[in-house]
Amino acid sequence: MLLEDLRAHKRATNVEGDRSTRYSLARWPGSGSMWMKTWQVLGLSCLMLPLASAGRAQVDESVAPEPAPTVTSPTITREMVEAPPPEALVRDESHDGVNVGFTWALQVGVPIFLDVDRDVVKAGGDVSFFAAADFGFFLLGGGGGVGWNRINLNNQTEIPFGGTSPLSRVFLSVPDIRFQLEDLKVVLPYFGASFDMNFWNFRETEPGCIDFYCTDVSVYRFTPGFTVRAGLGFEVSKNIYVDTGLRYSYSGEGNFFNRTQQWLTPYFGVLIRAR
After folding, report:
1. What is residue 116's DSSP assignment?
2. DSSP assignment letter at 17
3. What DSSP state is assigned to residue 117?
């Protein structure tokens, strides 16, 4: 009886052992569907690894900084060195400080005294010059010249010595100031004024001797005065003008006249501007 019980227990133990073994094998990763799923996961991981590496490399390339541009120095040729500068860079010297030129004129005039006896004091002639610094619309300079008027004393019974003789004048005009309109193309209008130092002579002489030689020397007497002029220049060539105008002159008594004198002088000549 006991023996039969031991055998039955042994058989039951073997059955339980077989079940445990099968249960253990069924749960082992190498058995059944669980094992297959594990291998599938490992295979997908192996396939994804190179793809991930390639994607990461592509991303690294996209965010990599661009290389700096290569700077090359320009080639300087002889033509570039010798070429004239562009007009925008050319220095305009006309606006640097004061632009000063020079103007000079030579004139021939006919002085006509006012408020005198025309039978005695005749119209005469004079030659004058003018030179000045030319600032464009303003001129500052001086001038001078010589002039004469014929005096007829033939009909003057109260004068013992008749005949005709010249009334001579030497004059110096300093300063001589002019204003002009230089923007006109063909003509150059101007007006001006000057202070005059006049030296007059009429038949007055005195002996003058040098060593053993003596002669009569004309005596000139001083009178102060002034002149106002207005003129018009006609351009005949670049900066060359035919000059015409009228002068009004006034002289005080000074050391020569017994009253003030006035005269008009129409004139013409040539005027040259150097600018």
Report:
1. S
2. H
3. -
Q: Exposed/middle/buried for 257, CB within 10 Å: 0-12, 13-18, 19+?
A: middle
In angstroms, the CA 129 to CA 112 distance is: 19
pTM over 0.85: no
Report the candidate in 190, 202, 211, 194 with the shortest Cα–Cα distance to residue 250: 194
Helix H or strand E segment including 217: strand 213-218
261-274 and 101-109 strand pairing:
antiparallel
Structure tokens at 256: 């020569």
Q: How far apart are CA 31 and CA 238, in angstroms?
A: 120
Tens-place pLDDT, residues 9-31: 556 555 454 554 444 434 444 44
Question: Left if phi > 0, otherwise alpha if psi is -120 to 50, otherwise beta: which for 259?
Answer: beta
Query: What tens digit of pLDDT does each residue of 262-273 get?
Result: 999 999 999 999
Q: How many CB atoms lie within 10 A of CB 175?
A: 13
Residues 54 and 128: their CA atoms lie apart, in Å, by 105
The structure tokens listed for 199 are 């030296």
DSSP 50-107: HHHHHHHHHHHHHHSPPPPPPP-PPPPPHHHHHSPPPGGGS--GGGSS---EEEEEEE
Residue 126 vs residues 105, 121, 151: alpha-carbon distances, Å: 14, 15, 15
